[in-house]
């Protein structure tokens, strides 16, 4: 008989971190091994083809003696057999740290062909159970320590499990790429993190149904990934640590605890979304905490937040007007909390509403969390064994507690309708949790009193609603049509109700370009209408008086006709053409008419200061225009050679930039924003030789934590100065996300030679690259300098004191005679983009 004692230390309820913890020692004797069976807490567990014992302390020679005993998860996974719901395949795991991917292997992990990410271990097994042999899940750790750009190309994922019925109990699943692994039971198993920068380091993909985790810890930071992709999923008494884009978006979290280290733990939720029941959320986010970057429903029931530096909790930064989220008994630091108070339309408070019974009810004076209603699906699944209480309460009250829908949808969610021309049928759908559709009954359709003159609602027997627009005013009106049930479910559609449109106005006076002021051209015309003019006007440079080879240079936006065009040095030698589509608020744009100024632009026609250029982004064309021509902006998408290892291609099938409002950190601000990965913007001034030069602008990244870009996969923005932009020779300031920090960006001075950039300064890591970062780059003689600061008091504290809050860089250079400007952005767009505004370019003699 082989018997061993395992020395355990009982944790004081604290999770792993890089800081020192206090522990209390105790001798643990609840586990005994007898070759073909184990005793755990006095219970005999027979080993066999569907019951393996795994102990990392045992040598290869020891485990070789027994057919169902292993010392690694990886080796055990090679011998799995499918289990069933009544007899699962069980891995009984002794306390230890089990690496599913060798942390000492220097080889970079890359995805296999056809896989989106590199996996540490792939398992195909029906009804597989990970059973930790300690009530403290911190004693049994299944680990990896790789992430995006840190030991892997792609978002490294520890496990890919295929099969229904996966479950885990008394386990820690941890990706220790960005945090230290501390294992007090055997400090020799401790391991330092790969790096401080928070990168995508994921845990588990799952395609299965009926997934359960109990008393299990999920530890990582960015993109945690606890059973991503699973269908009906229950987390019971689990703990989660994460930053953004982390949680399972279609799960029930019961009696769980969370440490939020960033503001958006969900990227989105799917289908009927996620539910929090009796949970505790400890948020380390400063100022504002949200749940989602994107859309999807969430319900919070008996959920408690605790925080030190938080002043607002919302569902997402700007919820869709048709979105609805549900809450009951939510608190922040023991005080009642209404989530999303700034967007109160999106929050449904369930107090005293029957919908609350879908999540909780009282049975014999005790609170019962109705996981049976949430998870039963169509096969009566009851992982928490509460069905009998649900049935008893139904018998007692005569109410339904087991078939209560939790989601009401309306399709379509947005539509534009013209009065006298269009109509729309809104279709409701009801779903039980888990995306099980039920018949739509008891649907009430309403609009608030201020909308009633703009639409007529006709409710059909099938519960659909016919919307007939009746807007008799001149302006388009936004109308919210709300659907609801007597239980308290809500949904909405956002409709834009136009008045009856008329034909575009005719020209009373035909359009003509006039030179009414020195240095300015004006498009003169008169339309037959009594409305405010909203005509669409675009200006072009052409090579001749016939309008050949037109290049768009300036456009109307925001319903403001651009009647006046300021001449610049770039216009010299060209003919100026204007195109106008007549429009007002009661019509669609009419057919475009073009007119060309009779004279070619001469140097004497230009009156503005040729030494200073301040582009008006509100009217500057954002069209794809790849030609490098003096006096023109060149806009395209380009993949620099130093990003080739990440295997992406520039997309020039659409305009690479757009003018408008940014998102996330750039929300509420307008400027030029990247529309495609690799967006590039260049300007070649008119002239043969240029002296000193200065560029200043304000950058507004969508990212707010200081990292600037979505990942450290060669994602950067180069701002070129004194550039030959056709051949890409000159100098630049590079802002790049690295693996060093997740809350700071590196600033580096670069030299370009034939499109190849090399650093000519040491990098400076700074925390100032957040919304409204002011950047100045200047060349005087043989000195290149760059300065960056933020008007807000941002600072990321680091132990090594290598992160600054203000950038000052300098390098000696070889002067050149170029005068071009360039922006090259290789990062992701959307939440990884940067809005550019207040750009000013100066040239000195």
Automatic annotation (TrEMBL):
The keyword Signal applies. Residues 1-20 form the signal peptide. InterPro entries: Pectin_lyas_fold. It comes from the Bacteria. Keywords: Signal. This is Pectinesterase catalytic domain-containing protein.
């Amino acid at each position: 008989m082989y018997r061993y004692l395992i020395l355990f230390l009982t944790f004081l309820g604290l999770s792993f971190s890089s800081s020192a913890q206090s522990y209390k020692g105790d001798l643990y004797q609840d586990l005994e091994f007898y070759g073909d069976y184990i005793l755990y807490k006095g219970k005999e567990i027979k080993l066999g083809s569907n019951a393996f014992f795994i102990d990392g302390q045992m040598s290869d020679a020891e485990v070789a003696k027994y057919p169902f005993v292993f010392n690694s998860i990886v080796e055990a996974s090679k011998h799995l057999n499918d289990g069933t719901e009544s007899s699962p395949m069980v891995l009984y795991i002794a306390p230890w740290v089990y690496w599913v991917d060798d942390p000492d292997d220097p080889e970079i992990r890359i995805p296999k062909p056809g896989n989106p990410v590199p996996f540490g271990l792939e398992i195909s097994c029906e009804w597989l159970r990970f059973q930790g042999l300690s009530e403290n899940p911190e004693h049994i750790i299944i680990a990896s320590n790789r992430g995006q750009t840190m030991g892997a190309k792609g978002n490294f994922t520890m496990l890919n499990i295929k099969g229904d019925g996966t479950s885990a109990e008394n386990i820690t699943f941890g990706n220790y790429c960005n945090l230290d692994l501390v294992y007090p039971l055997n400090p020799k198993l401790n391991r330092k993190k790969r790096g401080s920068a928070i990168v995508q380091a994921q845990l588990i993909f799952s395609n299965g149904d009926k997934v359960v985790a109990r008393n299990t810890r999920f530890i990582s930071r960015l993109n945690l990934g606890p059973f991503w992709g699973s269908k009906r999923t229950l987390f019971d008494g689990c703990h989660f640590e994460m930053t953004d884009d982390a949680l399972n978006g279609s799960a029930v979290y019961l009696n769980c605890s969370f440490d939020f280290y960033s503001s958006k733990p969900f990227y989105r939720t799917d289908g009927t979304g996620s539910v929090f029941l009796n949970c505790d959320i400890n948020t380390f986010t400063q100022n504002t905490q949200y749940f989602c970057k994107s859309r999807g429903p969430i319900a919070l029931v008996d959920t408690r937040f605790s925080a030190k530096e938080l002043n607002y909790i919302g569902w997402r930064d700007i919820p869709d007007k048709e979105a609805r989220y549900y809450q009951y008994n939510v608190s922040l630091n023991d005080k009642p909390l209404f989530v999303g108070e700034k967007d109160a339309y999106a929050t449904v408070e369930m107090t005293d509403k029957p919908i609350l019974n879908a999540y909780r009810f009282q049975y014999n004076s005790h609170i019962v969390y109705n996981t049976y209603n949430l998870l039963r699906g169509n096969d009566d699944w009851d992982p928490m064994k509460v069905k009998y209480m649900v049935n008893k309460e139904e018998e007692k009250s005569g109410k339904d507690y087991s078939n209560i829908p939790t989601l009401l949808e309306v399709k379509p969610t947005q539509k534009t309708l013209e009065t006298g021309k269009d109509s729309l049928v809104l279709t409701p759908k009801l779903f039980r949790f888990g995306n099980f559709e039920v018949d739509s009954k008891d649907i009430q359709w309403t609009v608030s009193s201020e909308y009633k003159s703009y639409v007529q609602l006709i409710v059909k027997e099938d519960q659909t609603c016919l919307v007939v627009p009746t807007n008799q005013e001149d302006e388009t009106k936004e109308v919210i049509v709300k659907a609801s049930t007597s239980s308290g479910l809500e949904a909405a559609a956002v409709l834009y109700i136009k008045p009856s449109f008329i034909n575009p106005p005719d020209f009373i006076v035909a359009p003509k370009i006039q030179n009414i002021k020195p240095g300015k051209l004006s498009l003169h015309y008169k339309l037959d209408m009594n409305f405010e003019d909203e005509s669409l006007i675009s200006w072009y440079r052409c090579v001749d008086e016939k309008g050949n080879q037109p290049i768009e240079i300036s456009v109307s936006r925001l319903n403001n006709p651009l009647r006046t065009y300021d001449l610049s040095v770039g216009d010299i030698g060209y003919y100026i053409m204007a195109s106008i589509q007549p429009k007002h608020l009661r019509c669609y744009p009419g057919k475009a008419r073009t007119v060309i100024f009779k004279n070619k632009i001469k140097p004497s026609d230009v009156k503005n200061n040729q030494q200073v250029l301040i582009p008006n982004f509100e009217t500057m064309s954002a069209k794809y225009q790849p030609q490098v021509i003096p006096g023109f902006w060149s806009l395209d998408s380009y993949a620099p050679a130093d990003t080739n290892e990440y295997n992406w291609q520039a997309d020039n099938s659409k305009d690479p930039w757009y003018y408008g409002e940014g998102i996330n950190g750039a929300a509420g601000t307008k400027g030029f924003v990247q529309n495609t990965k690799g967006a590039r913007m260049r300007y070649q001034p008119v002239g043969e030789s240029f002296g000193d030069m200065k560029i200043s602008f304000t950058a507004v990244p969508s990212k707010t934590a200081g990292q600037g870009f979505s990942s450290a996969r060669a994602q950067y923005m180069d701002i070129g100065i004194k550039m030959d932009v056709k051949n890409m020779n000159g100098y630049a300031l590079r802002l790049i996300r690295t693996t060093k920090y997740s809350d700071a960006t590196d600033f580096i001075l670069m030299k370009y030679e034939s499109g190849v950039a090399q650093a000519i300064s040491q990098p400076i890591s700074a925390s100032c690259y957040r919304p409204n970062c002011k950047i100045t780059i200047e060349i005087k003689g043989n000195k290149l300098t760059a300065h960056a600061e933020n008007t807000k008091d941002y600072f990321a504290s680091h132990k090594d004191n290598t992160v600054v809050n203000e950038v000052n860089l300098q390098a000696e250079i070889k002067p050149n005679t170029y005068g071009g400007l360039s922006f090259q952005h290789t990062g992701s767009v959307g939440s990884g983009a940067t809005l550019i505004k207040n750009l000013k370019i100066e040239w000195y003699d």
